[in-house]
Amino acid sequence: MPGSRKLGRTSDHRKAMLRAMVTFLLENGRIETTVTRAKEVRSMAEKMITTAKTNDLHSKRQVLAYVTKESVVKKLFDEIAPKYADVNGGYTRIVKIGPRRGDAAEMAVIELV
Predict the structure, then answer these.
(1) pLDDT band at residue 5 using 50, 70 and 90 as cut-offs
(2) Which residues, 6 or more positions from 110, have their beta carbon under 8 angstroms from its beta carbon?
(3) In the chain, at which end, N or C, are there fewer CB atoms within 10 A of the end residue's CB?
(4) Contact by Cβ (8 Å): 80, 73
(5) Which residues contact residue 93 at a Cβ distance below 8 angstroms, ignoring those fewer than 6 apart?
(6) Residues with Cβ < 8 Å from 79, sequence gap 6 or more?
(7) What is the Cα–Cα distance from 37 to 59, expressed in whole angstroms?
(8) Is 96 a domain residue?
């Protein structure tokens, strides 16, 4: 697992959460979450975009195995990946937005650049 932060969850729960967050990020372009989660999501989201840049059946299946919505995979291959065709990495930006009110966890917004 890249980065291998445990995020206080079992491996199954953590994997499911990251898949959901990466899917949501690719669908909406930005999400608000804690800084540590954002860093994990960035790692996987960038891998998905890099894989999608080689637009063939194998890479489509690799991405489909991770991203949870087919519509998002279509958007990734048709809109997002072509936008970054000549860029090597750095597709996302993490901006810290201060502490969360309930438990003062450091919050951040992660967005597609």
Answers:
(1) confident
(2) 25, 30, 31, 33, 38, 41, 42, 45, 92, 93, 94, 95
(3) C
(4) no
(5) 110, 111, 112, 113
(6) none
(7) 25
(8) yes
Q: Is residue 4 part of a domain?
A: no
Question: In angstroms, rounded to a whole number, what is the distance separating the alpha carbons of residues 81 and 25?
Answer: 14
Number of domains in the chain: 1
Determine the pLDDT at residue 22.
96
Note whether residue 84 is domain-resident.
yes
Domain extent, residue 57, equals 12-112
On whether residue 6 sits in a domain, the answer given is no
Domain of 60, CATH number, reads: 3.90.1030.10
* 106-112: strand order across its sheet: 30-34, 106-112, 92-99
**Other CB atoms within 10 Å distance of the CB of residue 99:** 11
Confidence of residue 49 (pLDDT cuts 50, 70, 90): very high
pLDDT in tens, 50-95: 999 999 999 999 999 999 999 999 999 999 999 999 999 999 999 9
